[in-house]
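BUG: 3D viewer hangs when loading the predicted structure for this chain

Environment: internal workstation, default settings.
Expected: structure renders.
Actual: progress bar stalls at 90%.

Input used:
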Amino acid sequence: MGFGDTAKKIQTLADKAERTYQKINELRSEVEETQTTVVDTSERVQRLENEMAEQRAVLDAVATEVGVDLESVSTEAHITEAERAAAEDAGDGAEPAESDGGESDDDESADRDAA
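Structure tokens produced before the viewer hung:
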């Protein structure tokens, strides 16, 4: 009688070990896929960062050529975005006067003067 209980316990233990082994293999596979995805994503991000740097250099050169002050344009964009975020945080849904995300009247007149 004791041997039957022991065999049953061993079989239960073997079944649990098999399920655990299968789960470990599944997890190993998922980890390998995740690592591959991370490496691919890292390479893609690096390429995009390089491309952005190149585009920024071209933009800086063009802006300098036409006389646009990129720092003031960038500052204005950040201010507009901060005002929009503050309005959203306040919960009133109101947007700042310059909601088009474009240039302000001052920037537009400066562009006309430069042309």
